[in-house]
Amino acid sequence: MAFEGLTNKLQATFKKLRGSGKLNEKDVKEAMREVRVALLEADVNYKVVKDFINKVTERSIGQELLESLTPGQHVIKIVNDELTKLMGSTQSKITMSSKPPTIIMMIGLQGAGKTSTCAKLGLAFKKTGKKPLLVACDVYRPAAIKQLHVVGEQVGVDVFSLGDKLKPVNISKAALEYAAKNGNDIVIIDTAGRLHIDEELMNELIGIRESIKPHEIMLIVDSMTGQDAVNVSANFEEKLGIDGVILTKLDGDTRGGAALSIKAVTGKPIKYIGTGEKLSDLESFHPDRLASRILGMGDMLSLIEKAQSTIDEKKAMELEKKIRSQQFTFEDFLEQLQQMKNMGPLSQIVDMIPGMGKLKNIEVDDKELIKIESIIKSMTKKERQEPSIINSSRRKRIAKGSGSTIQDVNKVIKNFEQTKKMFKQFSDMGKDYKRGKRKFPFFN
């Protein structure tokens, strides 16, 4: 996961800070030396690191502590504040036109994930009630037009294309006419990329910009390229002008320095981040939330939003009734597993829970969920509804059908029964508390 190395190093550094009252200058400077190394190793721009360290040091030394904070916590708060400022302080949104359609021009180098990000952005707008249109203006890369049609179909968003013979400028003009006739209020232009920035690429992009006057020019950059992503952003800003950045592949094994450097170097905000390969894996970028995650303090707001967007509220109410009436079955269990999978990789979910990132021995394995799902799907409908009938011969058949062992099947059944029992206890406690028969143990 991105930032894991940086998070570990920062947490180790802050543990060393001790004492009370005024912060010791020597301790702060020693800690800042370690923070500097951690940031540089995370591939954060050198000038950005230097400025960041100076600001944190200046704020930390000699300040009176807040009554509720230790020296270590005080420095962490300052680092958190400065990290948030570094990435833009507040969330930056797409500028919407007062007169539809809003035109968004997507630019970037080849391999950054531009075409799939067009579909992800289209899906994000579709979820808000908009009617987006994806426009295929990459007439050079083989199968680029076909790819846009495929991903557009997957997310249920219209795609406009005129083949690869016309100039992109003409295609984009025709797309705007089509959008006006068909009520598309968002137009997302997928432009061509190159392996590097060259004069031909820039002239074509400038031509499209001058022709259609986009409300937003969004640069798509691959976070795994580190400082190259920052340099690319600076070059595009200088030669074309950009309004914001979408940082892709932030779920990969990347040091994350691009996220911490782009705003400071280009002056342009990151507006979205790609957090996975699924076309639903695009998140609005919140500087304060990412700063919190970098410092290992979790991100409960994003976790709640993720849950709200994936969990069916009506089904959740039905599940609560089943739990209360002791009717919770393997079919309900399977449905919960599938909803959890829709929230994204378990490792990402765990990172959002405050304090969980520190537990290095915790098993975060998405394959385990797949195995459990396979075992439950290998049961008959009656077995899922009445687990008590699953005898040894049935367990053997289920194990064979799911490609697992009898021990695996036994473990799933045991965990299910324990979960059911736990739900029963919580339900009974809730009833007793309502009747006044029990008091909460915290207040005894």
Describe the structure.
There is one protein chain. The chain has 444 residues and is an alpha/beta fold. The chain is built from 19 helices and eight strands. Helix 10 links the parallel strand 6 (244-248) and strand 7. Helix 4 packs across helix 11 (287-294) and helix 9 (227-239) runs parallel beside helix 10. The longest helix has 30 residues, at 406-435. The two termini are 43 Å apart.
Name a few traits of the molecule:
3 domains; 8-stranded mixed sheet; Rossmann fold; Four Helix Bundle (Hemerythrin (Met), subunit A); 434 Repressor (Amino-terminal Domain); 19 helices; alpha/beta; 444 residues
CATH fold descriptor of the largest domain:
Rossmann fold
Number of domains: 3
Over the alpha carbons, how many angstroms does the gyration radius reach? 26 Å
Helix fraction bin: 55-70%
Strand order of the largest sheet: 3-2-4-1-5-6-7-8
- CATH architecture annotation of the largest domain: 3-Layer(aba) Sandwich
CATH superfamily heading of the largest domain: P-loop containing nucleotide triphosphate hydrolases
In a few lines, what is going on in this structure?
The protein has about 450 residues and is α/β, with parallel strands linked by helices.
Show the helix and strand layout:
Layout: H1 4-15, H2 25-41, H3 46-60, H4 71-86, E1 102-107, H5 114-127, E2 132-136, H6 144-155, E3 158-160, H7 168-182, E4 186-190, H8 199-212, E5 216-222, H9 227-239, E6 244-248, H10 257-266, E7 270-274, E8 282-284, H11 287-294, H12 300-310, H13 313-324, H14 330-342, H15 346-352, H16 366-377, H17 381-385, H18 392-402, H19 406-435
Parallel strand pairs: 1-4, 1-5, 2-3, 2-4, 5-6, 6-7
Antiparallel strand pairs: 7-8
